[in-house]
Each structure stands twice: as structure tokens, then as C-alpha cells.
Amino acid sequence: MSERRLNTPASSTAPAASTIAPRRATVLGVVLFLFIPVVLVLFVAHPAPVAGSLAAGLLLMVGHRFLARPYMLATRPHKCIWCNRFFSERRPGQLALVLAQGGDAPALDLLACAAHVDPARRFFAFVERCRQPLRIGIGLPLGLLLGSLVAFSAGLGDRTESATALFRLAVGLSVHLAALGPWLGAPREHSRAAFPVHNFYLLGVRAILWIFRLVGIWWIVAGGSYWLKAAGLLQ
Ligand SMILES: [Zn+2]
Fold first, then answer.
1. Alpha carbon distances (Å) from 126 to 7, 45, 51, 60, 129
2. For residue range 13-56, what is the model confidence (pLDDT) as tens digits?
3. Which of 50, 84, 108, 176 is deepest in the core (most CB within 10 A)?
4. What residues make up the domain containing 169?
5. Does the residue 112 lie in any domain?
6. Is 6 a member of any domain?
7. How does pLDDT run across 179-199, given as a tens digit for each residue?
8. Is 100 helix (H, G, I), strand (E, B) or coil?
């Protein structure tokens, strides 16, 4: 557990912001974020050939980490984890929270603008608290969807439609649960990462949560109506 004092300007511990070009880094973050919707389209729409979509999605998913994690390590000292803005003299960064990571990875200092320390703390504390339902709500339907795509590619039957509907409904509900974090979480100074934090550094937590909320509504309606029809409760 870190004994460092929080709520102090982080600029003394951060490299000079001039070593990184904010505009270029912001565009690069958007490009790296776009990997995520591409992977989701490959899995959810699984355009033919399905085996090719599955292989491309898995390759992008695994490879993305090797680009997004160095991006996070390079930009983390310079920008707000919440709003994604680069710090300046007028808007200096503060140490918002210390985030423990899994395995041997060292804890990360997450920095934020003064106004965004509180929502960042609340979000990461809430996601840690809900990590088991979130991991099951995302991991289990993802495993079933990938399994159905493998089975279809191997000629072992077609369960892809129901697996896709389950994935959309469960992930839509899970991301809406996570998006309650800024309101329901405790403003803790130390949290443990429930998911790889590098994805949040691509656009900032605030923008990513709004994308999750909007796509989540669409997926809850699409996935939910499939299951209501399957149960005979919807024409
Ligand atoms: Zn901010």
C-alpha cells in the first residue's frame, strides 16, 4: 500500500509534458481505440468466412495489448484518466488514485485534473467492487460466442445467432452496471484493477463510458428482443 500523499500536484514526479505531442497522442489513442469496435464487429457480425473473422478478431485482440499498453505507459504521466485532456500549467494534474494491477505488474499512479479526481476514484472503486459479476457478465458470454464460432467453422452446428444475442444482452447489461461507478462508487484513493487499465487511457474513462452506455442500450434492445421472441413473449 502506497504511503504517498494524494491530492498533490503530480507535475513534480512526471516527465515534462513537452516530451510528448498532445494532438498526435490523442489521434493515436483514437486509432488504437478503433481496434475494439473492429474486434467486436468481427465477433458479433462474424462476416463470412466465419473462421477468418474469428482468427482476425483474436489476432487483433491479442495484438492490441502490445500497442495499447506502451501507449498508456507513455501518455499516463501527461493526461487525465477521466477526460483525456493533457495537463498544462493552467490545468495541472493531480494524483487521483493508486491502482494495483494483477500479477507482477507494479501499481500505477492514475492522474486527473482537479475536477476529475473524484469521478475517477469512484469509478475504479466501483468496478473493483463489482468485478466478479462484471467478469462473468462479459467473460462467459464471450467464451460462448467464440465457442459457437469455432463450432460453426468446424461444421458442428449453428448456435451463432443465440450466442450472439446472449453476448449482446449480457455485455450491454454489464457495461451499464460499470457505468454506474462514477455515482455509486466510494471515492477511494487505492483500488485494484478489475480489467486492463490501458484501454481506458485510449479515450479517457468518461468518453469510453458514454460509448458503452449508447452501444449498451442498442445491444440490450437487440439481444433482449431475440430472447423475448424465443420465449414467445414478443411477436
Ligand atoms: Zn480531466
1. 20, 31, 37, 29, 5
2. 444 444 678 999 999 999 999 999 999 999 999 999 999 999 99
3. 84
4. 17-226
5. yes
6. no
7. 999 999 999 999 999 988 999
8. strand
